[in-house]
Amino acid sequence: MTGAGGARFEPDRLDDQAYLVEGDPSGMLRTVASSAAEVRTAYRAAVESGLARIGRDGRPRAIVVAGMGASGLAGEVLEALCRYGAPGPVVTVRGYRLPGWVGAADLVVAVSRSGTTEETVAVTAEAVRRGCGLVGVGAPDTPLAALVARAGGPYVPVGGVAGRPEATLWSLMVPPILAAAAFGLVSVDEDEFESVARRLEDLAHRCRPSSESFINPGKTLAMELAGTVPVVWGTSPMAAVAAHLLAARLGAYAGYPAIWGELPEAAHNQIGTFDGPLAGRDIFADPFADEPGGGPRLRLFLLRDVEEHPQVTRSRTAAVRMAEDRGVPVSEITADGVRPLERLAALAGLVDYATVYLALGYGIDPASVAVSTELRARISQ
Ligand SMILES: O=P(O)(O)OC[C@H]1O[C@@H](O)[C@@H](O)[C@@H](O)[C@@H]1O
């Protein structure tokens, strides 16, 4: 994509079956529909790589997940899983350097679908120099794979779609979770991944292209996002990962901006936008214009978890009322499911569909937003 400035969202495109095929030449909708298969494949690949064996070396002081973009989200998922129950810290590093305290007592899990991202390769090389335990997740026969082999750590190979590192998250996030499980930091088993896969299959059915907009939750969410400035809040650590994922996917697939946060923190700063210049109805808008409203206005998207702190529940309820009082529309999406990963699947699966549909509604090929590749090329010269 060389720029889609001024593109218009046309809801009819979402129910035009021919357009949904032509407008998506890379088959992003098919890729999203294969998420359940990806969970199962990732689980098998992680087991076959011998990840469980790392537990024999004793529990590390901390687990550091290194990754950029979608690969960094794998670290956030593990942090969210471990936040309140794990006996040790999990930290995500997005950048060129490890924190000063990381050393031989710690485990670094390096995640890069391409296996070449320069920040992640630099952090992994630093982890090798410091003698950290090392696990790698990414494409085989790459600089990342070579570094992990040099340190004698397990490497979980990831295939995926060439040139689309963020196509689905599951192959990147399953291995770090199983690495943490090998040390007893989290308790997950094959059954849990199987129920995640079944939930994703169910979503793939409900969000399939042939399902009409008015009953298709992916298309509905895309229509609610279109033409707004989305403010996306999660009501638990795991729901906040989904909020971050939504903002990340909006940028990556549709070139669309959003701000995201987690309650209660978001109520301490982002709530200020409810009284800001983009909130409510535009009083200067021309009432006779073809498109009333005069430009994008704020909309609050609440990604709710069934497990919320009681004060977060109060904060959420009050924030919804305050938004509505100010004319800020609100969309609430509740993640159901017994286990945290099932609830993440319920939100992340919907996010993947909605953001691909949003791009298609704007006439944008969701696999064509290449500006991050251009930046990488510029800095590597
Ligand atoms: O997973 P790897 O290959 O390290 O990519 C990390 C990230 O790089 C960015 O520039 C984007 O392309 C993201 O979509 C991607 O998630």
From TrEMBL:
SUPFAM superfamilies referenced in this protein's UniProt entry, alphabetically: SIS domain
Domain SIS intervals: 51-191
Alphabetically ordered keywords of this record: Isomerase
A Gene Ontology biological process term: carbohydrate derivative metabolic process
Keyword Phosphoprotein: no
Gene Ontology molecular function: any one: glucose-6-phosphate isomerase activity
Parts forming coiled coils: none
Isomerase listed as a keyword: yes
InterPro entries: Glu6P/Mann6P_isomerase_C, SIS_dom, SIS_dom_sf
CDD domains, sorted: SIS_PGI_PMI_2
Entry's family note: Belongs to the PGI/PMI family.
Protein name: Mannose-6-phosphate isomerase
Organism: Microbispora triticiradicis
Lineage: Bacteria, Bacillati, Actinomycetota, Actinomycetes, Streptosporangiales
